[in-house]
């Protein structure tokens, strides 16, 4: 153990901290690994053991304190991808068969859907473009 320099041990620790980072996908292990690399650099320039440990702790804690809130904010602000019927709401459709409060047919996203008018007193004629406001089961609610 005395034959190997301290900076090598810090690099071994960095590599060892990289393994759980990959296995668990917990970024904190990566931040500790960067702290270990910083301690290896401190050891390489001749710093004592106490300074090496302080560099490891300070760099690791600083990364966790700075990077985690930024990552959490980006994860929270990620745009939500709509799929299924949620993605169809707000799209336009073309009337294939007259649509009124009791029913009809529209072409929506390349598919033929049963449809009914949101306003039961309103009717839409063949060829008209309409907006889909909701999907109830297999029926598009249009206006």
Structure explained in plain terms:
The chain is built from 4 helices and 5 strands. With 143 residues, the chain is α+β, with helices and mostly antiparallel strands. It has a 5-stranded mixed barrel with strand order 1-2-3-5-4. The N and C termini lie far apart (78 Å).
In terms of topology, how is this protein built?
Layout: H1 6-24, H2 27-44, H3 49-76, H4 85-88, E1 92-100, E2 103-108, E3 111-117, E4 129-136, E5 139-142
Parallel strand pairs: 3-5
Antiparallel strand pairs: 1-2, 1-4, 2-3, 4-5
Helix pairs in contact: 1-2, 2-3
User: What sort of overall outline do the alpha carbons produce when their principal axes are compared?
Assistant: rod-shaped
Helicity, as a percent range: 40-55%
- Find the count of extended strands (DSSP E, 2+ residues): 5
Radius of gyration computed on alpha carbons: 30 Å
**Main sheet makeup:** 5 strands, mixed, barrel
One letter per element, helices H and strands E, the order comes to: HHHHEEEEE
- Helical/strand content category: alpha+beta
| Spans where pLDDT lies below 50 across 5 or more residues | none
Q: How far apart, in Å, are the first and last alpha carbons?
A: 78 Å
Count of alpha/pi helices: 4
The neighbouring-strand order within the major sheet is 1-2-3-5-4
Strand content: 15-25%
Q: What's the rounded overall pLDDT mean? A: 89
């Amino acid at each position: 153990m005395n034959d190997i320099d301290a900076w090598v041990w810090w690099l071994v620790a960095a590599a060892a901290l990289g393994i759980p980072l990959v296995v668990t996908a917990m970024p904190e292990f990566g931040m500790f690994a960067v702290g270990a690399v910083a301690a290896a650099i401190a050891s390489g320039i001749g710093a004592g053991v106490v300074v090496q440990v302080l560099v490891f702790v300070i760099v690791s804690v600083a990364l966790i304190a700075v990077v985690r809130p930024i990552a959490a904010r980006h994860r929270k602000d990620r745009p939500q991808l709509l799929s299924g019927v949620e993605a169809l709401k707000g799209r336009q459709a073309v009337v294939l068969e007259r649509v009124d409060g009791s029913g009809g047919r529209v072409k929506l996203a390349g598919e033929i859907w049963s449809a009914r008018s949101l306003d039961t007193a309103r009717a839409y004629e063949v060829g008209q473009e309409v907006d889909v406001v909701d999907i109830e089961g297999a029926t598009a609610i249009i206006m």
